[in-house]
Every structure is written in structure tokens, then in C-alpha cells.
Amino acid sequence: MAILDQLTSQQAIDLENKYGAHNYHPLPVVLNRGEGVYVWDVEGKKYYDFLSAYSAVNQGHSHPKIVNAMVKQAQTLALTSRAFHNDMLGKYEKFACEFFGFDKLLPMNTGAEAVETALKLCRKWAYEVKGIDENKAEIIVCENNFHGRTTTIISFSNDPVARKNFGPYTNGFIKIEYNNIEALEATLKANSNVAGFLVEPIQGEAGVYVPNDDYLTKAKALCEKYNVLFIADEVQTGIARTGRLLATCGNCSCETKNCDKSPDVKPDVLILGKAISGGVYPVSAVLANNNVMDVIKPGNHGSTFGGNPVAAAVAMAALEVVRDENLAENAYKLGDLFRSELNDYIKTSNIVNLVRGKGLLNAILINDDEESDTAWNICLALRDNGLLAKPTHGNIIRFAPPLVMTEAQLLDCVSIIKKTLKQFEN
Ligand SMILES: *Cc1c(COP(=O)(O)O)cnc(C)c1O
Q1: Is 133 a known active-site residue?
Q2: Strand partners, 92
Q3: Percent of the chain residues past pLDDT 70, beyond the cut
Q4: End-to-end C-alpha distance for the chain, whole angstroms
Q5: Exactly one of 124, 266, 274, 390 is catalytic; which is it?
Q6: How many domains does the chain have?
Q7: C or N terminus of the chain, fewer CB within 10 Å?
Q8: One domain for residues 188 and 261
Q9: Quick check: is 103 catalytic?
């Protein structure tokens, strides 16, 4: 078989199964093209993408402005390493700092690397600024978190599938219940060695758990009171996904006025990834003000690819698209429409219990237990009906389309989803 021959779906799946490590369980569909809100499989069938590569493709597949920026920069200068300066990194750092309202940015590539960076930054700040005794710093995290796959990060996961037989684990983390402000206060009060609180503004992987409207505000106030860094992992919720530039919003240049229900909360450390590149290239970043970021000195941390010229060009273009195409506003408006349509359906449904989310980060809860394969089978039927989504946990299906969707397209998707769910009503 010549490499360039067009494979059938089955041939492509067989190759992955034989030669690839089995670390994922993909929906059986083999894609070879994407544009905007659509993807196509190798047989030419067209689908709405309702996962957006876990919210990396907020700007839509192969956005021409982002792809052009990438191609142009790749043809000019792709990688210098940080041993030398390049003429794109500083421009990008200034752009992103002004965009999100922070003093400094530390560039990395993947979300997990950015989370690791934030943890290291937080610990160093704890010893050098807060004055915690060496090796004693603790970072508070939440139950059912998802922050990535490195050894340290899975050390404070409570997903047995992600953890088991990967020990020994990294110490220095205290796990508390999500959306429980009393638990946070009690932990801060009881322990003077706490350096930071790492939190997802909405728990995406856990099944799109939206905390109470005042949770983040109160958590931030407690962090201030106890001199602890509030670290927001916005790898999934950031970049307009939830109807605001950031789910925490913060002191950002966001044009939307959708901060009514959950007021601005400015993280001390902001972690971004996924859609900061529009999904065309791995780009991640940690942002903080000087009082925190300045603890990092030459040699303390780094990455060969972090902050490379292509990443810088791509991220600037991707953020411009978010601003110029009003993606936060669109996500806010379409999200409301989506949930109200689904809520209408749920009134008479036996198979769906509820829809929840913010902006275009939503999930439905299937009326069956976690071990059942109902949600998986619904996703297979959605695929057959032209829409791609995937269960997060056994009985939860996440719906997160690209934010460049139009209202007409969204209503088309809603009718596909309703039609599919009807096949499963009894
Ligand atoms: C996806 C994700 C990560 C990890 O990002 P990778 O690029 O896969 O390493 C971290 N935190 C959150 C909230 C995520 O959704």
C-alpha cells in the first residue's frame, strides 16, 4: 500500500490499531478535511464538528487567517530556540499581555506543560516571596479535576484510569471538593503552607460542571485573604468558549458585556492552551504579573519549542480572529439558544435528564448509569446523522462546536440532535 493512496476508513482504523499505542478510544470515524464548523470523512461524508478538538478549534477548522499566518512564518523562520532572540516572540508577548491584562507571559506548547509551568511558578513564588519553608509548599486542587497527563498532574487526579500504576506520585497537593467554598476556607485556615489554588472555572472533562455564580469570586477573595495564588486553568474554558474571552474574564479587552452573572475575577496566574492557536499548532501560555513572574530566572524553566516564531504568529492571528469575529458574543448568544432548545426537548424526554453549560461549552446528561453504553451509542447515531460528539464520562455527552457557527447552522444541529435522541426514547 503506497502511503499516498486514499485509505478507506477501515484501513485507517486498522493501521492505528496495529501500529499505534492504544491510549485513546476514538469514535469510529476517519476525517481527512475540515473547514469552519464542518469536517469530512475519507468517504466524503460531511459532519458538524461538535467537539472542536476539545475546544482547540474555537475559530473553526483551517481558519484562513490563522493558516496564512502559520504558512508565512514557517516559510520565513520556524525555530530559533530561546538560545537566541527572534523578532516575533516579543511582539506576541506584548500582544497577549495587553489582550488578557497581565504584565508577562511565559510561552510553552501544550496545556499540560503550561499547567506544570504554573505549578513550578507557584512553588517558587511561595519560597521566595511568600516565605514558606523549602519543600513545604502545598497547592490546593479540586476533586474531579482535569489538568493534563504528566506525572505530577496525574498525581492529583482522582481518575483511577489516568492514575493507576503510574506511581510513585508527586507530593504537595491537597484535594478539596469543587464548588465548595467552605472546604476551601477550612483548608486555607488549617494550613499556613498553602501556596496556590488551582481551579478550572468550569470542569470540562469532568462533564461540564458549572460552579455557583459566586464561587470563583469568593475563592479569589479567600486566596487574597490568605496570600495564596489563584491559578485559573482556562485551557478549555478560555478564548471565548464560554461566551466571554475568559470564563474568569479578568481585566481583559473583551468587548462582550456578558459578565453580569459571574463578575470578573482576575487570576494571579492564568493558564491558556488549546484555542490560543485556533487548533492549527500546539501553543500554550502562562500569564502573571511581575510580582509573581519575576521569580523565574534564566535557566529555571524552558522549552525548545516554546515561544517559537510560528507559535507567536499563529497565536496573534488566532486571538485577532476571536476579537474581530466577535466569537465571545456569538458563543454567548448561541449557547443560550442551544440550552433553551434542548431544555424544550428535555421536558418530554426519558433519555436526557438535563443540559448544562455556559456559552458553547455544554453537556447533556443521559438517563442511564455511567457504565452503560447508551451515550456512546447516541454518539454513533449522531455520527450517522452528520454530527460528531463524544461522551466525557459514561453518561455525559459534551457539545462544543466551533464558535464561528451561525444561528441557522446551530438550529440545524439542534434538529439533528433532537432527531437522534428521539431514536433512543422508549
Ligand atoms: C486539555 C486540557 C489540559 C491539557 O492540555 P494538553 O494540551 O492536552 O496537554 C489542561 N487543562 C484543561 C482544563 C484541559 O481541558
Answers
A1: no
A2: none
A3: 96
A4: 46
A5: 274
A6: 2
A7: C
A8: yes
A9: no
